[in-house]
Specification:
By secondary structure, the chain is of the alpha+beta class. It is built from 13 helices and ten strands. Mean pLDDT is 90; it is low at 1-22. Residues 256-385 form the Lnb-like transmembrane domain.
């Protein structure tokens, strides 16, 4: 199924690039533009929903959708490029009916917000979109927060509007980027767990209504409440809002949540630590798995901090407890016991301080992190008393 959609997307991109600039017809006075907002799906890349732009002009027989969210899993080194923040997306086009059928089949709703544009603004936006379809313009460097399928549309509308757009602050307490992301990962707790590992302190700064437009449904809210300082007077950005496809799917949270799993790991660590101290048992396998997984996650965090172009991965306080260096005692306990004891004490102290000072750390930790922190600290501390 994925291969079929990849071929369809590739065909749409080819059709898009085949449209020469000279073939762009002026729109009639009947033309209209609408923001289409699709509700979230179940897959990781569907969790935040989708935005697209509809252009309709009955007199010219036009009813198409411009979509800045086209990508292919089969791009060479896709996973590495995505982790590195070097994924390229492209703009594509499709028929409006086909677009609605696709999201109805997924179980997502589609809401339409009719943009309140005059003829000059419509023509400017039409020409802007067609310029983006040219081969030299259609590919762009995707950025999860600042340059995605939603923000590209926001930027296009802002550029083509004849006046400045004023967004209303819709919340008494502004959301942080992380809080906004968590709104859309409530039923995908493992995805939320992963986001909270990879995204650093920058994600915890407050975001205004315009910045929150990286999330399609929040951008729809922003557009509905926005006004345009037009030369002829202030006007609302959206003239009509309706749901054109109703949601059919209901997504439930996973039964084994990160908190349940992490608490179970801590409980197992408690039992193992008791047996180790009481019976001088050496559970090397448990520590190897625990520190090994922690090391892999730590290397990923370090890679994101140093090399990734993704926003907000640079200053990540998770490195205080998800650290590749926790592997060291596995190699020093036997041959350098004194060093190992000091090392374990330092590691245990760092993790305990991280737990105690977490309210003061400028980064929000996922609640499921704390049982894991306690597990690592417990195993580090147990190694001190059981071996010396």
């Amino acid at each position: 199924m994925r291969q079929i959609w990849t071929k369809i997307i590739a065909l749409l991109c080819c059709l898009a690039t085949a449209i020469p600039a000279s073939a762009v017809q002026p729109l009639s006075d009947e033309a209209g533009f609408s923001l289409l907002t699709c509700s979230p799906g179940e897959q990781v890349y569907e969790l935040f929903g989708h935005s697209a732009l509809r252009v309709s002009d009955d007199s010219l027989g036009i009813d198409m959708v411009f979509n800045y969210g086209v990508f292919s899993f089969y791009t060479e080194n896709f996973i590495l490029k995505f982790v590195s923040g070097q994924t390229d997306y492209t703009i594509g086009i499709s028929r409006f009916n086909d677009f609605c059928i696709e999201y109805a089949a997924r179980g997502s709703s589609v809401k339409e917000s009719r943009l309140n544009l005059d003829n000059t603004e419509k023509q400017a936006l039409w020409e802007f979109l067609n310029r983006n379809l040219r081969p030299e313009n259609r590919i762009y460097r995707y950025n999860f927060i600042f340059n995605n399928c939603a923000t590209k549309i926001r930027d296009a509308v802002e550029e083509c509007a004849q006046g400045s757009i004023a967004y209303q602050e819709l919340r008494e307490e502004p959301l942080t980027f992380r809080q906004a992301i968590r709104l859309y990962t409530r039923t995908a707790e493992w995805s939320q767990f992963g986001f909270d590992i990879c995204l650093g302190a920058g994600t915890d700064r407050p975001a205004g209504t315009r910045e929150l437009a990286f999330l399609p449904e929040l951008m729809d809210e922003a557009f509905i409440s926005a006004t345009v300082a037009h030369p002829s007077g202030e006007k609302p950005l959206v003239s009509k809002h309706e749901e054109i496809v109703q949601a059919a799917a209901v997504y439930e949270a996973a039964k084994l949540s990160p908190m349940v799993v992490c608490c179970c790991v801590f409980a197992i660590a408690l039992v193992i630590s008791f047996l180790q101290i009481r019976y001088k048992w050496n559970p090397l396998w448990f520590d190897a798995v625990l520190y090994g997984i922690t090391a892999i996650a730590g290397f990923i965090i370090l890679y994101l901090m140093i090399f990734s172009e993704h926003p907000f991965t640079g200053a990540n306080f998770n490195i205080l407890w998800i650290n590749p260096l926790w592997l060291v005692p596995l190699f020093t306990d036997k041959h350098c016991p004194r060093f190992s004891r000091v090392y374990r004490m330092a590691a245990c102290g760092i993790i305990v301080l991280t737990i105690l000072l977490s309210p003061a750390i400028p980064q929000s930790f996922n609640t499921a992190f704390f049982p894991l922190m306690a597990t690592i600290a417990l195993r580090m501390g147990t190694g001190i008393f059981a071996r010396h």
